[in-house]
Predict the 3D structure of the following.
Amino acid sequence: MISFSHDPEAGTLYGYFTDLEAGQAVDELEYPASLLLNSAGRVIGVRLDLDDEITLNQLELALEHNEVRLDMQYGYLYARIADEAAARVVPLESPALIDLDEEDRLLGFDVAVPADLRTPERLERLAPHMLALEEAAPSGLERRSGGQHGDGDSTSVTRVGFVALVGKPNVGKSTLLNELLGQKVAIVSRRPQTTRVPLRGILNRPDAQVIFIDTPGIHEPHHRLGQFMVELARRAIPDADVVCMMVDISMPPTSLDIKIATMLRRVRVPRLLVLNKIDRPAKEGSHLEAYRALATWDMEIAISALRGTGLTTLVDEIITRLPYGELLYATDQVADQTEQHLVAELVREKVLHFTDQEVPHSVAVEVEEWQEKEQHTYIRLTINVEKESQKGIVIGAGGEMLKRIGSTARHDIEQALGRSVYLDLWVKARPNWRNDPSSLNWLGFRLKDWK
């Protein structure tokens, strides 16, 4: 029999196709979902709108239940508690999160239920099939919760875990990461959406190893690259042990802040509200209460990433919420990116800095050649833009802009690598590459590479 559980705080309804063992859920998918209501307006089940990518083998566990039916014509998977016709189908704003095991079989799902449909009266038909959250915890939710938190028994005194830094563009996530680690591992720009792939920065202390995931800013995408960035940021959230939502406290919440906070309400790990830019005067008075009201927060910490204010408190609060475990990285490692990726990002940072409004985020840098020579490291890179006019701007009159980019980038690269570097920069126009799947793959933007 299919089972459910309800988390009133998160506003989510969980459905289970099997009694899961801890760690059995290893991946997840997103699909549109709807609630099924009977004639009295009571919730009797969920409809998942699948596509051709889902096979019958993947539905093996789901279809063992009499309450689960697959509509082959439309790809709808109905999971309902009774042989009762749905009088109404209510599409949900947020997609369902579907858990998969190592064999890619569907194990269960959770959906975000609107407030007016998650009252005891609305859910009374599901009551005989409901499990308490304590009973349901081993059944796949443990993957999202990051294991044991707090002061539980452990043979290790080291706390180890992943911390997702999420927020809209330009709230200071990369600045915070660089400040915490004491060196540049993420590029920083006044332009939003600078970070394109999740970067893991590693903070080592005698009592803890904290792996910060600097995610791309969550925004409304206007091209395939933007969709890629938002999807990567979203994927980083469920797998974290702690989630920090960074906001610009000098400005009131926007629709993007509300959207991100809504996503975080479904997360079953500690949520910290990080109020950045306290060094700036707030516009239109204090915005603290507005940010507090976005979700239920385990803690709120006021910081200035730029000036380093409040960072010790932030790290201490994070560490107390991490699980105990073995170290995942060497204690002298500060990032999980390769030298090649770091070099390419540092060059892209200088392009964004010097061209400012003239060249938007249509820049991608790829390493073409890397040779270790006796006196220096030779690195040839191509700066890809989308238009010939942008190519001219990056090169500049007589090549002056390209020389300026190369000179300042080389300084940062030599500091990062600790050795002399010869940069050989080229510029190429690759039309509309941000919307071209083959170009995105060529430049390394592949979702499967960034699990």
